[in-house]
Design goal:
This protein has three helices and no strands. The chain is an all-alpha fold.
Length: about 100
């Protein structure tokens, strides 16, 4: 008897072949990634190897704004504030309004 091409065995076989092809192409792609990544990393490392540049200090940038050493060490004088007035106490019977006494 001739095998039916539309039977379940042939469909499973075709699906298996398709999956096998996809897996093979995926494996090839994964194998090609490490050399490509190494090439990219080498190019990026070559770009970052530049001579170091000195960073200027604030005093070098603005020498005319530099304060004398005596003011910088002691800091500006801050006048002391007057003490706060004492808070008035509520009357003694005030608490009875809020507390219920049961007897």
């Amino acid at each position: 008897m001739a095998e039916d091409r539309d039977g379940p065995d042939s469909i499973e076989s075709m699906a298996f072949q398709l999956l096998l092809q996809k897996m093979t192409s995926l494996e090839r792609a994964m194998e090609s990634l490490p050399p490509l990544l190494k090439k990219i990393i080498d190019q990026l490392e070559a770009q970052t190897k530049q001579p170091d540049v000195e960073v200027a200090t604030y005093a070098q940038l603005y020498p005319e704004l530099e304060e004398p050493a005596t003011l910088a060490e002691s800091g500006p004088e801050v006048p002391s504030a007057a003490p706060l007035p004492e808070r008035p106490r509520p009357p003694r019977g005030w608490r009875r309004w809020f507390v219920r006494e049961e007897g």
